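It would be a great kindness if you could assist me with a short task in structural biology. The matter concerns a single protein, recorded as an amino acid sequence and a row of backbone structure tokens. The record follows directly beneath this note:
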Amino acid sequence: MGEHGFDLPPKATREVMDWREELADRTCEALAQAGLPAHRVDLQGRPGANVQVDPLADGGVLVEWGTQEELATAAVDLLESGVDPSNLPHAIRHYETVQTCMRDAILQILASAGFHVARADAHTYGSAVHVKGRTL
């Protein structure tokens, strides 16, 4: 049990983390070959595919699309100001469309390149793609 009275999720072993780091590098390479800007998480915030390694035992390699700051900021600002969920402003709908289209494109591109991919758990990882391994 952790110091605050609850169990922390188990971390992946060093061997698993090394494998995930290699998988993340191959993921970036495959996306770059397809013409998409791809970056490891240490450069997150840049537009393009942000690839990160989740250190939890049940984690993995995740890819999430990052838009230009102006698009994301416009959507966040509107959400923070309070909006009617039944009538979302155009900026929010556009941001959501971009995220969905790019997630689906990344899924298809990586699958075509020989990766085993799936939509990540939306509750935990939002619109990310979970890269589970390579099939080739």
